[in-house]
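Hi there,

I know you've been waiting on this one. I reran it after we fixed the sequence typo, so this is the corrected version. Both the input and the resulting structure follow.
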Amino acid sequence: MRSIHLALISLLLAGCGVEEFQDLRDFVKNAGADMRGKIPPPPEVKPYEPFIYNNEASLPDPFKPRKPEKPSGSRPGIDQPDFDRPKEALEEFPLEGIKMVGYLYQNKIGYAVVRAPDSKLYRVKAGNHIGMSFGSIKEVTDTEVIIEEMVQDSTGDWTKRVSSLKLIE
């Protein structure tokens, strides 16, 4: 009986050893044998030809600022910040980091209470300077601080920009 069992088990194991999908494996192995990828040749590289700007050319040099003609009534240097003025404490912080947190009215003058990025509180009024863009406080109300800044445009001229700080509720 034992030898019959051994014979049956060896027949079963011998049947498992036959490769069932050999034809499929051969197809996959040989399917791409005759196919080769083709890479197109690289494009022709043209040599760089620099453009030379000269005074006679009608094209402006893109690396030199172009200033528009000023009206005859304007005087140079009038609309620019005072660089010789001593800086105030709030001029070392960007305006975006300063928050209005309160309002005081003392001796008929309105003061804004602002918090700087260093977490200190400052009391400011019209005429004080604030922010890194030569900002000057023009008006303080119970809900906002109106600031006039001097910024330099791409041609090097100074222009005025109005900003404000709103009271944080």
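Quick highlight: Residues 89-166 form a domain with the SH3 type barrels. fold (CATH 2.30.30.830).

Best,
R. S.
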